[in-house]
Design goal:
The protein is α+β, with helices and mostly antiparallel strands and 692 residues long. It has 3 domains: 76-254, Penicillin binding protein transpeptidase fold (Orthogonal Bundle), CATH 1.10.3810.10; 340-608, DD-peptidase/beta-lactamase superfamily (Beta-lactamase, 3-Layer(aba) Sandwich); 621-692, no CATH class. Helix content is 40%, strand content 13%. The strands form 7 sheets. It has a 5-stranded mixed sheet. A 5-stranded antiparallel sheet has the order 7-6-18-17-16, with helices on both faces. The relative contact order is 0.08. Residues 329-605 form the Penicillin-binding protein transpeptidase domain. The chain crosses the membrane at residues 20-41. Residues 658-669 have a biased composition (Basic and acidic residues). In the C-terminal section; belongs to the transpeptidase family. In the N-terminal section; belongs to the glycosyltransferase 51 family.
């Protein structure tokens, strides 16, 4: 018997040792497995937290003006600081009350779920943590397979090892689905309640926190009864987590909610033509891929001033007859930074997204003349330079061709006029004579140096703006004159951030000095003449129809062809250019149509400067101002009925006094030198050559 007992004991000890050995092997294997899993997760590194997100476009004041959506889905990204505290508490309470204390897996909850499923003999309770749900939302399909479960666990471990609880929660709240094509809490708050996630009340938050469990079932817009029942469960969970009391929960439950009826905050369509340019710039200049632009969750800050944009749009609507087919191209720009503040590419973006401000090339007419006259100043012309204006036929191309420019309504002084008068009344003969004297290539080179990108025809009529140009180029060129000669690229984007708020692009001011500051200022002063009736000559100055509407210091130039009407002008603070015309080249025959551009410009500029102090154009060094008789261009005397302060590059100002109105008894004024008859008989070109 003793032998038998010893044998049995030995057998039991062998079995126990075997079990211990097997247990040890299993423990080692589990340890190795866990260590391998952790090592794999660490080596694999941090998985990306972002999913496709809507790219948002902002105006300069932070106003949201547009967005790029991924496949029609609304997705925004906000930080935890931008989410209301009640929403965070409600979400944690109903989805994962032990979120901040577990390592990605809630084992107690898993055990409870298993017991509940066994008792019911069916899948009745889930145990996924917020981290697990986030892993599923980021990387996996929602099919119920063992392979997916294992992969989900791996991603969960990787998330927990590489990110803080706050980062994971932030990502989760920005990616969960709330129904109706809406992803993330910011989009959900906007969609259901028409507000930001930071502004959600506890009643609204408890309603939204219950939706992700089953968006089609618990959306209050689909079934408010089920949604309210789900809200009650959320509030009960908040009570259990001691965020609120039972009494508070009941009061919150009874609080009536006002929904947006399935509509997000109605974002007014702001500057759609401008937005198109911004998207194009992101791709062509910043080299961002189409995928990044559409799904990267970028925050794009632009130069657009929504107040100026609204001002411009209102002036177009109020000025152009509603039944007219006339189109418009409009650009307003800060001359000192190159930032585009307002832009209109047409009367209706929905009817035609073709951008007439940046894509169309139309004949600029006399708005091209300031480039010519700047070039003339560089060659020795002054505001007082006289040229005879009369019907003149010019031959060119070695006598094989001829050209006869005509003034508006065929009015001619048949006498000499000064440069200051010529630009103020827009005399075409003076312009063509100047152009041919300088050499046709001079104007072309000057225009190109000012940023005109269109192909220009090197012909006599180029002085009158017969080659097509873009509105954006013309406004930028005028900005260059306005700021004293610094050429800048038009700026549409000032800063771009990724979804984390990290800056990936910031505007760098680049400029190139292309004009002499003194002559640029004299050109500006020449352009103030279109509004000054002191320069009326054989006809009125071209700005006489709008000068009574203006209360500020402006420089500008209008222009017209049979099919185009332009007005471009500026103050020291703002440049604006307007083109109006028909898309198909139809001529503008009505007087009212021809005045659209000027009237839009004048009313826009006045309102744009309404709250700004008047600022005069400040002369740079090397410029002097003297009072001259506008008709002769000579120094004015007390006897001259009209005198005008006129600016010259130092050393080119007139030194002779006007004798036309000199009284015989006035001995104090110096007498002008008498011209010799042979000098009076000199031809136009001979006189000009004598000046150099």
């Amino acid at each position: 018997m003793e032998v038998i007992r010893n044998d049995r004991l030995k057998i039991a000890l062998r079995i126990l040792r075997a079990f211990l050995f097997i247990f040890l092997i299993i423990a080692v294997l589990i340890t190795i497995g866990v260590m391998s899993l952790l090592t794999y997760a660490k080596v694999k590194g941090a998985p990306p937290l972002a999913v496709p997100l809507s790219t948002l476009l902002y105006a300069e004041d932070g106003t949201l003006i547009g967005e790029e959506r991924h496949q029609g889905e609304t997705r925004y990204w906000v930080s935890l600081d931008e989410v209301s505290k009640p929403l965070l508490e409600a979400t944690i309470s109903i989805e994962d009350r032990n979120y901040f204390s577990h390592n990605g897996f809630d084992y107690k909850r898993i055990a409870g779920a298993i017991l509940a499923d066994v008792k019911a003999m069916a899948k009745v309770q889930g145990a996924s943590t917020i981290t697990q749900q986030y892993a599923r939302n980021l990387f996996l399909e929602h099919e119920k397979t063992w392979n997916r479960k294992i992969t989900e666990a791996l991603y969960t471990i990787r998330l927990e090892l590489n990110y803080s609880k706050e980062e994971i929660l932030e990502g989760y709240l920005n990616t969960i689905y709330y129904g109706h094509g809406v992803y993330g809490i910011e989009a959900a708050a906007n969609y259901y309640f028409g507000k930001k996630a930071s502004d959600l009340t506890i009643a609204e938050a408890s309603m939204l926190a219950g939706i992700p469990k089953g968006p089609s079932h618990y959306s209050p817009l689909n079934n408010e009864k089920k949604a309210k029942h789900r809200q009650q469960l959320v509030l009960a969970a908040m009570v259990e987590n001691e965020y609120i009391s039972k009494k508070e929960a009941q009061k919150i439950y009874e609080t009536p909610l006002t929904y947006s009826k399935g509509e997000a905050i109605q974002r007014e369509t702001i500057a759609p033509y401008f937005q198109d340019i911004v998207k194009k710039e992101l791709h062509s200049n910043l080299k961002l891929t189409k995928e990044m632009i559409e799904t990267g969750g970028l925050r794009v800050y632009t130069s657009l001033d929504p107040v100026l944009q609204k001002n411009a749009e209102e002036k177009v609507v109020n000025t152009i007859n509603e039944s007219s087919d006339i189109q418009i191209g409009f650009v307003a720009m800060d001359p000192n930074t190159g930032e585009v503040k307002a832009l209109i590419g047409g009367r209706s973006y929905q009817e035609s997204p073709f951008n007439r401000a940046t894509q169309a090339e139309r004949q600029p007419g006399s708005t091209f003349k300031p480039f010519l006259y700047y070039a003339a100043l560089e060659k020795g012309f002054t505001p007082s330079t006289p040229i005879r204006s009369e019907v003149t036929t010019f031959t060119f191309d070695d006598g094989r061709a001829s050209y006869t420019p005509h003034n508006y309504k065929n009015y001619y002084p048949n006498d000499t006029i000064t440069l200051a008068q010529a630009i103020a009344v827009s005399d075409n003969v003076y312009a063509v004579k100047t152009h041919l004297f300088l050499g046709e290539e001079t104007l072309l080179k000057t225009a190109k140096s000012l940023g005109i990108t269109s192909d220009l025809k090197d012909v006599p009529s180029l002085a009158l703006g017969t080659s097509g140009v873009k509105v954006i180029d013309m406004v930028n060129a005028y900005s260059t004159i306005a700021n004293g000669g610094s050429l800048r690229e038009p700026v549409f984007i000032t800063r771009v951030e990724n979804y984390k708020g990290e800056i990936i692009y910031e505007k760098k001011t680049k400029s190139k000095s292309v004009l002499d500051p003194a002559n640029a200022f004299v050109t500006t002063q020449l352009m103030t003449g279109m509004f000054d009736e002191k320069l009326n000559s054989y006809t009125a100055v071209t700005g006489s129809t709008i000068s009574n509407k203006l209360t500020r210091f402006y420089a500008g130039k209008s222009g017209s062809t049979q099919a185009d009407s332009w007005m471009i002008g500026y103050s020291p603070q703002l440049v604006a250019g307007v083109w109006t015309g028909y898309d198909k080249g139809q001529t503008m025959d009505l007087t009212a149509e021809k005045r659209y551009a000027k009237n839009i410009w004048a009313t826009f500029m006045e309102e744009a400067h309404k709250d700004k102090p008047p600022v005069p154009f400040k002369p740079p060094e090397g410029v002097v101002g003297v009072y001259v008789n506008p008709d002769s261009g000579l120094l004015a005397t007390k006897s001259c009925p009209v005198s005008r302060l006129t600016f010259y590059k130092k050393g080119t100002e007139p030194t002779e006094y006007c004798a036309e109105h000199l009284e015989d008894h006035d001995k104090k004024e110096p007498k002008p030198k008498k011209k010799k008859k042979e000098e009076e008989d000199k031809g136009f070109f001979k006189k000009l050559f004598d000046w150099f």
